[in-house]
């Protein structure tokens, strides 16, 4: 907690150039870009960083091939270039992956027509990835025996990319970069609104961990509150050209369905792309696309039935998937940027995730609508330009604010890892050598781990059963990753709660030691808090009123006036 406490103190001590409200992908990339170029930045989130939409994605980094059907070629071209840039900038984290799409009889396009479209997609991406190929039903069965090809006309394979770890972890890497560049950031701090006086915003905030109030001053405010951007603009008196429409998407995490490292893609019963995505020892399936009126959403029986029905129709499994196979769920809304003179209902399933930025020069205020993880580097650069237009000096305009350390640094890490025999310490249950995983997750921060392991081999031991997390990683999280609650670590800094069942987590002998490392004397409190929250969520989802209709609770929740949470992935 020392990192968070020191940042809370900094919040009230000075006037910042920029205050960013919302620590999802938009807010995190904006903070990293501004801080990396020398701007004095503060970043807050009313929950944990990336705790809303940015932890509920498909973990895919893709060029938006589905937008080709609506002829939005400019957006596809832009997203493909953004995807390529992320692969180049984060080669250990953002990696090319093949998509195998099966087309059934009666579909609106013949498989060869779609295959031709993948070639256009490949060309629009500058031929950066492996070339597409066409597959007949027999070839599909040979390569992915679990696919039901009884009704298949054929299929095609093409490339996009995915996140090797998880979306929330990737978002936090930008927050960590911002902190390293001198930014002030704090989670669990909500915005109660702000007033502008004499060219300075006076922002009223609340520390939700103890309900204490504080005031922060900033020359510019950036509203990156994701699904809650409209509500926060109401608090600050902003009138914008855009607003949000909401689309709910869910995923189910189930036992591994195929050992092949590729994404299986189908067209679901509603015509939308439907994915089977590798997630380490598990498989992620989804997603849905349900129009919602409010950003607060929950999984319903209909959502789960839709995903299970679609996957069981399209795969030939030894035993159909049921609710008993569900290890974890993901549920969130996609905030879709809509012009204020539109209602967002036109061609809802074809609405894109492109972002929009509205600026009030008079007030020194910026609002970020929509967006997705693939386009995060563009968002960061665009925000720097807009902040400069509002009169904020950019001390280091050419500074690079993203990407992995260079090859020389990586080579130095590998040499040091070899000196201490790191890969020989890799647990037998791990999916990859320790040198690969520690470098991908921590970059230069992994050097300190090597030194601790070199001094004490116990630092390389697994701490939580069924996971790949070492004792030294928990110490790193405690000092460097602002883990405030146990869920922050289990769900966002790692993906433990996505791939390990709650029962297994609860019974893990190493969990208590992990809590002691993370929270010290508060370990028992945080442990009890986590399981109380999990039981409460399960009881709510199993209640008949919730299963039938979550609208009433959503309407009640949407009245909250204290905002400042994560943005779109």
What can you tell me about this protein's structure?
With 569 residues, this protein is α+β, with helices and mostly antiparallel strands. The protein folds into 3 domains: 1-54 and 167-241 and 345-390, 3-Layer(bba) Sandwich (FAD/NAD(P)-binding domain), CATH 3.50.50.60; 70-164 and 245-339, D-Amino Acid Oxidase, subunit A, domain 2 (D-Amino Acid Oxidase, Chain A, domain 2, 2-Layer Sandwich), CATH 3.30.9.10; 407-542. The chain is built from 20 helices and 18 strands. Strands 3, 4, 5, 6, 11, 12, 13, 14, 15 and 16 form a 10-stranded mixed β-sheet that branches. Residues 548-569 have low confidence and may be disordered.
Strand content: 15-25%
Determine the CATH superfamily of the largest domain.
Answer: D-Amino Acid Oxidase, subunit A, domain 2
The main pleated sheet reads as: 10 strands, mixed
CATH class of the largest domain: Alpha Beta
Helix segment tally:
20
Q: What distance lies between the first and last C-alpha atoms, to the nearest angstrom? A: 27 Å
Helix and strand composition category: alpha+beta
- Please provide the count of β strands: 18
- Average pLDDT over all residues: 91
Domain FAD dependent oxidoreductase: 17-336
Protein name: FAD-dependent oxidoreductase
GO molecular function, one term: glycerol-3-phosphate dehydrogenase (quinone) activity
Keywords: FAD, Flavoprotein, Oxidoreductase
């Amino acid at each position: 907690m020392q990192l968070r406490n020191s940042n809370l103190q900094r919040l009230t001590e000075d006037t910042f150039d920029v205050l960013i409200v919302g620590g999802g992908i938009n807010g995190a990339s904006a903070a990293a870009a501004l801080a990396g170029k020398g701007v004095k930045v503060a970043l807050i989130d009313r929950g944990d960083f990336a705790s809303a939409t940015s932890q509920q994605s498909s973990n895919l980094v893709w060029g938006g091939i589905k937008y080709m059907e609506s002829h939005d070629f400019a957006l596809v071209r832009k997203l493909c270039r953004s995807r390529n840039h992320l692969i180049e900038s984060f080669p250990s984290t953002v990696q090319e992956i093949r998509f195998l799409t099966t087309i059934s009889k009666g579909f609106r396009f013949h498989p060869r027509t779609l295959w031709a479209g993948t070639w256009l997609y490949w060309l629009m991406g500058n031929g950066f990835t492996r070339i597409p190929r066409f597959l007949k039903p027999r070839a599909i069965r040979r390569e992915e025996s679990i696919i039901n090809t009884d009704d298949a006309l054929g299929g095609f394979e093409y490339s996009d990319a995915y996140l090797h770890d998880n979306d929330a972890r990737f978002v936090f890497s930008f927050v960590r970069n911002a902190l390293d560049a001198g930014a002030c950031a704090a989670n669990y701090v909500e915005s109660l609104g702000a007033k502008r006086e004499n060219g300075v915003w006076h922002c009223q905030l609340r520390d939700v961990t103890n309900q204490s109030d504080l005031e922060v001053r900033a020359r510019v405010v950036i509203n990156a509150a994701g699904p809650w951007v409209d509500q926060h603009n109401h608090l600050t008196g902003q009138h914008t050209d855009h607003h949000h429409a909401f689309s709910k998407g869910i995923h189910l995490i189930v036992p591994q369905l195929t050992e092949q490292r590729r994404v299986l893609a189908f067209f679901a019963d509603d015509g939308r792309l439907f994915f089977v995505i590798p997630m380490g020892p598990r498989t992620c399936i989804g997603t849905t696309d349900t129009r919602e009126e409010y950003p607060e959403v929950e999984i319903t029986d209909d959502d789960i039935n839709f995903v299970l029905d679609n996957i069981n129709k399209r795969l030939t499994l030894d035993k159909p998937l049921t609710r008993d196979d569900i290890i974890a769920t993901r549920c969130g809304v996609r905030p879709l940027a809509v012009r204020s003179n539109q209602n967002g209902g036109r061609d809802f399933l074809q609405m894109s995730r492109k972002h929009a930025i509205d600026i009030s020069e008079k007030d020194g205020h910026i609002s970020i609508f929509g967006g997705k993880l693939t386009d995060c580097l563009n968002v960061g650069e665009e925000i720097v330009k807009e902040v400069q237009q509002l009169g904020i000096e950019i001390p280091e305009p050419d500074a690079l604010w993203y990407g992995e350390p260079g090859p020389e640094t990586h080579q130095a890490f590998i040499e040091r890892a070899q000196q201490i025999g790191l890969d020989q310490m890799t647990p037998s249950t791990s999916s990859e050598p320790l040198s690969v995983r520690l470098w991908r997750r921590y970059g230069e921060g992994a050097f300190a781990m090597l030194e601790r392991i070199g001094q004490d081999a116990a630092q390389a031991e697994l701490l939580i059963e069924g996971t790949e997390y070492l004792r030294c990683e928990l110490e790193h999280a405690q000092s460097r990753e602002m883990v405030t609650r146990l869920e922050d670590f289990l769900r966002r800094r790692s993906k433990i709660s996505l791939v390990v069942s709650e029962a297994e987590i609860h019974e893990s002998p190493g969990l208590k030691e992990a809590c002691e490392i993370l929270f010290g004397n508060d370990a028992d409190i945080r442990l009890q808090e986590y399981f109380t929250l999990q039981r409460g969520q399960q009881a709510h989802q199993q209640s008949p009123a919730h299963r039938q209709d979550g609208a009433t609770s959503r309407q009640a929740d949407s009245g909250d006036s204290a905002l400042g949470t994560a943005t779109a992935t």
